[in-house]
């Protein structure tokens, strides 16, 4: 019978994967808070720039006006330890966001936090989802590199400071976990705060 053959195939696949993939049931929490400095507008300090103008139509729910369906921005935002932009730089956020609804205030975002200091220097956390202009935005942590390989979780973002209409600061709270390799799990790895202990 087709269905039992399919079930058997799935069971064999699962067994083969269990043999070849070093799966660990242990996960270590990764939590941290950083601040993303967003420089908008057209000045020389601008870090979020229009990459492509979309085909439209105009999405009337977005301000300032004349946002077209498909408009896409690219970002290279400085990330700091505290809301103040003069506080210690800890990384960058690289990514894009696109006006993805013709009528509602919805952007699809994809961004990666690269840490550039401390023991996580060079490691990244990859995030994505939709931005619907809620006061608190939630995005999925969909992966990572370096110390954050296999990361899963979510991230909450909210604007906590506005220097001006073209310079706002987003607080990013990461709630994720990473798999602990068997060798480390056996020796009971300590939990590791991301960048700052809160
Ligand atoms: C901090 O932000 C202010 C206001 O946007 C800006 O004038 C200044 O150049 C920024 N300083 C740094 C170090 O980025
Ligand atoms: C982070 O790593 C880069 C590349 O390895 C290195 O050039 C840089 O000096 C490191 N920064 C810190 C603060 O350790």
Automatic annotation (TrEMBL):
GO biological process: phenylpropanoid biosynthetic process
Signal peptide limits: 1-25
Subcellular localization: Secreted, Extracellular space, Apoplast
Record keywords: Apoplast, Secreted, Signal
Presence of keyword Secreted: yes
A cellular component annotation (GO) from this entry: apoplast
Predominant location: secreted
Superkingdom per UniProt: Eukaryota
Presence of keyword Cell membrane: no
Pfam (any one): Dirigent
Gene3D superfamilies in UniProt: Allene oxide cyclase-like (2.40.480.10)
Summary of the function given for this chain in its UniProt record: Dirigent proteins impart stereoselectivity on the phenoxy radical-coupling reaction, yielding optically active lignans from two molecules of coniferyl alcohol in the biosynthesis of lignans, flavonolignans, and alkaloids and thus plays a central role in plant secondary metabolism.
Subunit architecture: Homodimer.
Family label: Belongs to the plant dirigent protein family.
Protein's name according to its UniProt entry: Dirigent protein
Organism: Urochloa decumbens
């Amino acid at each position: 019978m087709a269905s039992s053959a399919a079930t058997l195939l799935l069971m064999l696949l699962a067994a083969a994967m269990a043999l070849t993939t070093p799966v660990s049931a242990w996960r270590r929490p990764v939590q941290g808070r950083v601040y993303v400095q967003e420089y908008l507008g057209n000045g020389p300090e601008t870090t979020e720039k229009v990459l492509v103008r979309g085909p439209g139509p105009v999405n009337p729910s977005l301000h300032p006006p004349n946002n077209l369906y498909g408009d896409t921005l690219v970002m290279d935002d400085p990330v700091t330890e505290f809301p103040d932009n003069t506080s210690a730089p800890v990384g960058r956020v690289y990514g894009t966001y696109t006006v993805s609804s013709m009528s509602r205030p919805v952007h699809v975002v994809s961004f990666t936090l690269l840490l550039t200091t401390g023991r996580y220097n060079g490691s990244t956390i990859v995030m994505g989802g939709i931005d619907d202009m809620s006061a608190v935005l939630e995005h999925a942590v969909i992966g990572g590199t370096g110390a954050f390989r296999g990361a899963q979780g979510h991230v909450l973002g909210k604007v906590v400071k506005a220097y001006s209409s073209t310079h706002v600061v987003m607080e990013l709270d990461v709630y994720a976990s990473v798999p602990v390799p068997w060798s480390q799990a056996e020796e009971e790895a300590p939990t590791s705060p991301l960048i700052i202990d809160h």
